Structures are given as structure tokens and as C-alpha cells.
Amino acid sequence: MTRTLFIAPQWIGDAVMTEPLLRELHRQGEQITVAALSWVAPVYQHMDSVVNILELPFVHGKLQWAQRRELARQWRGMFDRAYVAPNSFKSALLPWMAGIPERIGYHGEARYGVLTKRLPNPDPDNHPPMVDFYLGLFRQHAQANSGLRPVLQRPTDTVRQTLQAFGLTAGSYTVIAPGAEYGPAKMWPPRHVAKLCQLINSQVLLVASAKERELCASIVEMATGAKVLNLAGATRLSQAFDLISAARDMVSNDSGLMHVAAGLGVPQVAVFGSSSPKHTPPLSDKAQVVWLADDPSYAPALDCAPCFKRSCRFGHTRCLNDVEPDRIAKLILV
Fold it and tell me: For residue 284, which of 14, 40, 72, 154 sits 20 to 30 Å off, Cα-Cα?
């Protein structure tokens, strides 16, 4: 059996998108250990193909050479092969320093020497779907339309315990994830979220990180009369998974939690703005996407989308501002 180290990407959505790759590697007989940053590592607890998880003690944006050297020393002789999901040069340092014989990744940041097999970077003007991008590490090139979808698992007992802790009943509430780590050009306006909360008669949970407490607090303040529970920063990531898995449905931006809901098979509506559902769609038969750039009934046309920018360079963010709450309500209140 091949002992495989997988260096995980740094964002939750990307981590979810690697599940089909890890499933394929597992089917080929590879014993997979995932090395991931602390805020991403919990995602891999919900993948059946992962045998072990090593939490990396690194800070985003720093090299931390001494820590990498010490980890590499500990890993010597432990692995036969490494797949490096991120494209950064420093992400490939650990497998190289650990002397892992086979080290596979995309060319990325000119990673000569540190990788034994460098795959050509995909065309930047033709973003491949992220699942296929990661599958390309195994299939030696990014495939189009593989048909594989991420699958996440949640133990029934764990979900039950989380619901009891928050005084909730499965299927009785809607989760709204109003945040987006990438920036405001991926975030549906808070006033629209608040209006949607008012249109939903049942309990609404706002699930977000601690950094988004003020955002969620503003939504609660605007959503007069609605039954809204602000859980921003109040849950561990695993608890957020539990709450999403037991929800009646979910509404989100193009975010990591959107991909979590898709992997868990929860009915959902995903609102896209500056990004493209052709690149990072929620891969689920129970997912509905609203993207004005692909809506023939919307005028004038959004020739600027997708721009993949953090903020709108024109200042109007029409791609999100013009998505009315009534439209989303009709999709979930069926």
C-alpha cells in the first residue's frame, strides 16, 4: 500500500473540492494522510478516504522555516508519495525537505526542484472546475466534466448532540451563511439577507465566522420581527457542519459553507456575483444557483461578470444588488 501525504489547500471550499481526488486515490490503494492548516483540518474529518490528519502549525503568509524543517525531520521515512494541492512554492517545501521520493503538483510558482512531477498550469483564461483541477493531480492533467462530486459524512449521534446543545430540531430551520472570505463582490447585501429572513416564517440560523459577527448583528437588527439566531463565531466548524446537515435548506454566497452544504446533500440556493458557477458550482442535485450574468431575462447584460475581483471595480455590484430577496424566497419556500 502506498503511504500518501496530501498537502491540503488553505480554504474550506477548496478543501471540500479535493474530496473526489482523495476518494480516487483511496480506491487505488493509497493510504492517505492529510496535512492541513488548523482552520481547514476539520473538513477532512468528514471524508471516509482519509486515514490520518496532521494539523500544520503555520500562520498564513509566513514562511516559518524552522517549524517546517522540524516537521520535515519528523516525517522522514513516513511517506512514499506526496500530492501538493496549493500552487505556492512554500507549500511544496515540506515534502521536499522530508525527502518524500515522489512529489506531485502543478508547476505553480516555478516549483523547480521541490517537485518530482510538475503538471502544467491550467489556462488562466479558462478556469477549469475546481474538482477537475484537483483530480488533475492524479490523472496528470485537469479533466473537464469528470462528473465526480464531493461527498461529506456526518455521524448521526454527533448531529443529534449539536442540535440538543442549541435547542434545535432537525428540518425545522433554514441556515443562511451571509459571509464570503474572498470579499464584498461575493457577498449578497446584508439588507437583502435581512429581508429574506423576514420572508421566512420558520427559524433562521446565521452561520458565520467570528470575523463576521458585526455583519450578522447588522442583519439581525434590520430583520425586524424575524426569528433569527446569530451564531457567528458561536460554533466550531464541526458544529457548523452538523447544523447545516440537519437544516431544512440553506442560502449562501459562493463560499466554503456553500460547498459544505452541497457535499452534505442539503437543499440549497447559492447566490453568485463576481465569481462563476461554471468554475466553483455547488455540486449537488439539490442545489439551485442564482447568477444574473447567466440570466437571459436580466437587462442590461452583465458583461463584466465574472470578474473574479474582491470588490466591484465599477462600484455598483449589480451582480448582487439586483438579486431581489423575493426571488430567493420563492426558490426555498416551496
Answer: 40
